[in-house]
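Anyone up for a design puzzle?
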């Protein structure tokens, strides 16, 4: 199944090669300096950029990085390096963060925790005190409790963590950890003591990754039960999940949907995993946070919901307002397959999808109402009107096409983005489950480096911008051209919706001055629909960083945020009057 991109031709193929000869032990010299092998192996597995900040314990490692074919990008602050690497990995198939011990490693921890939660394959390489330094347990700078502290902390946010203290095992450890990252689509941690990185290590003990296989009986039983349900269903729907993007299996699901003529909805995490201009795509489902009533009604009245690769999270399911009862659902993920009340383990997700995609089935009756969900063009007499949040997403949608990637931060930037719908197929990337603020500006840098043909459209609230917005400086230095849309509603709008308080106040910045500060890019301040529309046209013509500050009244929120906030207040018993 090497060609599932032909159908879902909207993400570049993962850069990591499936050609195992490239990573066979005999394709390397018999010995290599550890640092050289580390970055050569990562390069052969598809890493082209590294994001980080150096420090003295990491300098020898950074020197090897600089000599390698991987481009090292120094960021303003480690959290940004983590967010950039996370966004990069989602598109590229693998990414890399290089930092120094504890002050760097612990600084980037939150972003890596997000990558773990949302299944983004990031390799974290941290410089560290030397093997010799550790002998008498001295008080070295950057040490917290013991020399093991950072690795132990990382155990919680990675699938595997190691300290390379043994020359004999270093090569096989590197291979094992990088392969684990690729297999599980989750971060791994490799700590490199500064006195190890120049040592010659034998390139031995490298075993090829074995493709996992389903148990054939379990697979057959799960398929038979699923296919029987599909055959009986009069109104089935597919709820495409985020794992389809991570495991590059959206093409298989599209093939299945097309053969069976079954409509497809996405959720907030998987938005854009299925091309949104596909004839079977109906919109984003998330209970009360759905993109529109049509998709909400369709999914809730379906007699079978095929959830494929779906993470069922509180926010993406509209804070417990989604209606997806087990008696009318199949939930298949990389971890298990649940068919109604039955659970099947030992099934490979891809094999399950491959078999569904080729199973015989009479096509269902479905036809999407034409023009449903598409944005209404901007009329002349509206242009002088003030922007509402719904208009922000509507006008943006009118400008988006397949060369755009919307990168949304937390706040109304992400909730309102549920309503983005274009006649074309832009990409969408956001930390929609872990929901850490500060993701989008650095994330835009990761996107731009991972896929040159995509221009990032960064949507960021004023609060989130104050966390990592200065990262625009890196975009200017690298000659990238993200369009950064700052939704300035004077503070923490999302929090205000849930609970009012002085703690939601932040300093009003003059956001458009950021270009003066960092020495590049253009900026503009807008508050009407026409001004926003014209600013987007100007930004699209410019090949530089372009910052658009949107002045939004404090009272303006998207319908999706209003709904979510109402549910959160209800569940938590908050009276916000
Ligand atoms: C790192 C981090 N800190 C705190 C929060 C909690 N939080 C969620 S939304 C929000 C306010 C966001 O403000 P802003 O970026 O201005 O967006 P708005 O809600 O106004 O649209 C806060 C503080 C978070 N999600 N992440
Ligand atoms: Mg705000």
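Challenge accepted. My sequence:
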């Amino acid at each position: 199944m090497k060609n599932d991109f032909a159908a879902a031709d909207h993400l570049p193929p993962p850069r990591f090669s499936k050609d195992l000869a490239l990573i066979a032990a005999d394709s390397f010299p018999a010995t290599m300096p550890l640092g050289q092998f580390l970055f050569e192996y990562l390069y052969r597995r598809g890493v082209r950029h590294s994001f980080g900040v150096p420090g003295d314990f990491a300098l020898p490692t950074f020197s090897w990085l600089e000599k390698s074919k991987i481009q090292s990008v120094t960021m303003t602050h480690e959290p940004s390096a983590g967010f950039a690497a996370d966004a990069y990995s989602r598109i590229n198939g693998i990414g890399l963060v290089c930092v120094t011990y504890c002050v760097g490693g612990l600084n980037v921890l939150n972003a890596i925790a997000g990558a773990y939660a949302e299944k983004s394959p990031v390799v974290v390489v941290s410089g560290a005190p030397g093997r010799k330094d550790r002998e008498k347990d001295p008080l070295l700078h950057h040490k917290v409790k013991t020399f093991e502290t950072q690795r132990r902390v990382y155990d919680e946010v990675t699938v595997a963590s190691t300290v390379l203290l043994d020359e004999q095992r270093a090569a096989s450890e590197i291979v094992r950890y990088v392969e684990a990252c690729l297999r599980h689509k989750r971060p791994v941690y490799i700590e490199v003591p500064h006195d190890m990185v120049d040592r010659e290590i034998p390139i031995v003990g490298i075993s090829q990754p074995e493709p996992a296989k389903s148990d054939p009986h379990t697979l057959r039983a799960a398929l038979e039960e699923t296919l029987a349900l599909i055959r009986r269903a009069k109104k089935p729907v597919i709820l495409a999940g985020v794992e389809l993007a991570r495991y590059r299996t959206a093409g298989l699901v599209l093939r299945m949907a097309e053969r069976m003529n079954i409509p497809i909805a996405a959720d907030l995490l998987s938005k854009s995993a299925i091309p949104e201009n596909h004839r079977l795509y109906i919109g984003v489902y998330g209970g009360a946070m759905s993109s529109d009533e049509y998709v909400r009604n369709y999914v809730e009245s379906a007699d079978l919901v095929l959830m494929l690769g779906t993470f069922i999270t509180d926010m993406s399911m509209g804070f417990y307002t989604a209606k997806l009862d087990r008696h009318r659902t199949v939930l298949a993920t990389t971890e298990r397959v649940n068919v109604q009340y039955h659970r099947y383990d030992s099934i490979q997700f891809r094999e399950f999808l491959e078999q569904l995609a080729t199973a015989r089935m009479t096509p269902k009756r479905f036809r999407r109402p034409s023009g449903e969900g598409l944005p209404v063009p901007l009329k002349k007499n509206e242009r002088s009107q003030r922007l509402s949040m719904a208009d922000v997403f509507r006008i943006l949608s009118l400008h988006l096409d397949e060369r755009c990637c919307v990168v949304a931060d937390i706040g109304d930037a992400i909730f309102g983005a549920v309503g983005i719908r274009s006649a074309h197929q832009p990409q969408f990337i956001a930390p929609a489950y872990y929901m850490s603020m500060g993701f989008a500006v650095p994330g835009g840098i990761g996107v731009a480096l991972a896929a040159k043909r995509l221009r990032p459209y960064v949507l960021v609230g004023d609060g989130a911008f104050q966390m990592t917005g200065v990262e625009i400086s890196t975009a200017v230095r690298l000659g990238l051209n993200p369009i950064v849309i700052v939704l300035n509603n004077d503070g923490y709008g999302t929090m205000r919706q849930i609970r009012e308080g002085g703690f939601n106040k932040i300093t009003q910045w003059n956001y458009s001055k950021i270009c003066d500060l960092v020495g590049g890019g253009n900026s503009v301040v807008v508050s009407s629909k026409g001004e926003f529309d014209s600013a987007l046209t100007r930004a699209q013509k410019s090949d530089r960083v372009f910052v658009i500050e949107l002045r939004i009244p404090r009272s303006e929120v998207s319908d999706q945020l209003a709904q979510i906030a109402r549910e959160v207040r209800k569940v938590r018993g908050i009276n916000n009057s």
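A detail worth pointing out: The chain has 20 helices and 21 strands.
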